[in-house]
């Protein structure tokens, strides 16, 4: 029997999350003015409660099943890398498209905490989905994610109106490869893109002298269920996992409604092309949040 593609369902399919039914219910999920100001100044916003313990456990169970290439929904991934690390002594599991396969990772897109914050950080606009990612670093040998800007991999869409939400599924520490950010780097303009799972410091080849002087990373440790939002031009990366604990996370990438395609080619593997100049929309790029009614 064919595996159901949840990508065709643009609403909650499980009971992990509850969609608010009134403006009053939405209020609890709003970011404060100081949080938004911190994001606008630094290019990232840490410590946002995204999942409770039950939700974390459910999604971790799904990821454990999805890591098996023989999973019946495996063909629905846009990309699947059991190990994307260029260092054979380390492992970086990285996959795109899990939202199409399992209910928890599908419904994370319609988590009220996520969509409200995303809309606010994009400027109080309707939010449309781009794609998701899984990043898992196993104990003792988890590989790096090199310093990069997300938008440097997304130039096939324009203009720059994109946002990333990284959500930890384990406590994330410097020992197990937590995310690091360069505050203010969202103002540096678009840089060349390095190999995502290659040399951690490869980005230095693309920085000018002033940027190298301002390259002062801040490690951001998080608790399981906490998220970090960042601007699509903010430099970020994460080191190896040398600890005895796993470091699992999923990432939700979104953009402001109105972003258009800048390519006639496939934007994601297996997804019908959106002609260049046409608005990004359709079943694979659903509108997640149009505002509080």
Strand coverage percent: 15-25%
| Helical residues, percent | 10-25%
| Order of helical and strand elements | HHEHEEHHEEEEEHEEEEEE
**Unreliable runs, pLDDT <50, ≥5 residues?**
none
CATH topology group: Jelly Rolls
Distance between the termini: 40 Å
What spatial form do the alpha-carbon principal axes imply?
Answer: globular
Helix count, per DSSP?
6
CATH superfamily: q2cbj1_9rhob like domain
Q: Which CATH C-level class is it? A: Mainly Beta
What number is the mean pLDDT?
97
Structural class based on helices, strands and sheet pairing: alpha+beta
Q: Could you give a short account of the major beta sheet? A: 8 strands, antiparallel
* Number of DSSP-assigned strands: 14
Number of domains: 1
The gyration radius over C-alpha positions equals 18 Å
Return the CATH architecture.
Sandwich
Describe the structure.
This protein has 293 residues and is of the alpha+beta class. The chain has a single domain, classed as q2cbj1_9rhob like domain (Jelly Rolls), CATH 2.60.120.620. 17% of the residues lie in helices and 23% in strands. The chain contains six helices and 14 strands. The chain has helices spanning 23-26, 33-42, 53-66, 103-107, 112-121, 209-214, and strands at residues 44-49, 79-81, 93-96, 127-137, 145-148, 157-158, 162-168, 179-181, 218-220, 226-231, 236-238, 247-256, 260-261, 287-289. Strands 1, 2, 3, 4, 7, 10, 12 and 14 form an eight-stranded antiparallel β-sheet that branches. The radius of gyration is 18 Å and the shape is globular. The chain starts with 22 loop residues before the first helix and ends with a strand. 44% of the residues are buried. GO terms for molecular function: 2-oxoglutarate-dependent dioxygenase activity; iron ion binding. Keywords: Dioxygenase, Oxidoreductase. It holds the Pfam family PhyH.
């Amino acid at each position: 029997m064919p595996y159901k593609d949840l990508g065709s369902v643009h609403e909650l399919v499980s009971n992990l999350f509850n969609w608010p039914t009134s403006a009053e219910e939405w209020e609890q999920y709003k970011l404060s003015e100081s949080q938004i100001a911190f994001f606008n100044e630094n290019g990232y916003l840490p410590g946002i409660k995204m999942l409770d313990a039950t939700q974390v456990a459910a999604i971790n169970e799904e990821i454990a099943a999805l890591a098996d290439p023989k999973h019946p929904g495996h063909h629905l991934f846009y990309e699947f890398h059991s190990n994307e690390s260029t260092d054979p002594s380390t492992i970086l599991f990285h996959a795109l498209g899990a939202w199409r396969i399992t209910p928890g990772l599908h419904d994370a897109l319609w988590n009220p905490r996520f969509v409200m914050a995303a809309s606010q950080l994009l400027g109080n606009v309707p939010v449309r989905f781009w794609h998701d990612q899984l990043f898992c670093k196993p104990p003792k040998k988890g590989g790096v994610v090199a310093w990069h800007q997300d938008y440097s991999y997304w130039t096939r869409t324009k203009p720059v109106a994109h946002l990333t939400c990284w959500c930890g599924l384990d406590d994330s520490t410097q020992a197990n490869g937590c995310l690091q950010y360069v505050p203010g780097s969202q103002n540096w303009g678009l840089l060349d893109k390095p190999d995502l799972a290659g040399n951690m410091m490869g980005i230095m080849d693309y920085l000018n002298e002033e940027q190298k002087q301002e390259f002062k990373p801040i490690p951001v440790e998080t608790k399981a269920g906490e998220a970090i939002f960042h601007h699509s031009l903010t430099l970020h990366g994460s080191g190896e996992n040398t600890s005895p604990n796993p470091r699992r996370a999923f990432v939700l990438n979104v953009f402001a409604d109105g972003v258009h395609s800048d390519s006639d080619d496939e934007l994601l593997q297996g997804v019908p092309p959106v002609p260049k100049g046409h608005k990004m929309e359709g079943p694979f790029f659903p509108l997640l949040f149009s505002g509080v009614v």
